[in-house]
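Cross-check.
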Amino acid sequence: MTEAQQPAAAIVGVGNRLLRDDGVGPRVIDVLEGSVDVPSEEVRLYDAGTTGFLALEAMSGCDRAIVVDAIRTGREPGTIREYRFKDGGFDEEVPQVTMHDVSFTEALTYARDVYELPDDVRIVGVEPGSLGTGLELTDPVREAIPELLGRIAGYEPAIDPDEVSAIDPDEVSAIDPARSEDETPTPTTHEVRDP
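Predicted model, tokenized:
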């Protein structure tokens, strides 16, 4: 994709899928990729994992960006908070969004000379219930995903809010890596033959 073909927006999921609710950002990207018709020529969907510079790279060249992450603020698990970065600064104090290699909020503030970052970045944070080892999101965070998706659709004109609201919040397999029995692949067995 050439620079002239850059999407106008980026939606970036941040977090570690192996640490329960820390993986909410990447899970939201999974849902958008699997359940919503997001025009790739208009919106870049990106799972940045825990690397702050990958998140910045995904946003580079876009006019606007939405970053989804688990952010501890001391509120009830599943509580959604938003922070806006516009014109080189945040509209309010933002908790540190630590991504192992660098604080994302610091990187966003100081990396403007390196990356062509959007002038308008929204960080949509979800209060985690658990950051312990595990693949499944806690119930409060999983139940917050429909509201997260609705907020994203409200900010990003290329995403149809009706399509987002049609996603069944009870369909855990679309949101979480936990598979139902009928989705679990059957292990392959190899026949051993005597020579």
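Residues 179-195 have pLDDT under 50 and may be disordered. The CA atoms of residues 72 and 127 lie 5 Å apart. Passed to J.P. for a second look.
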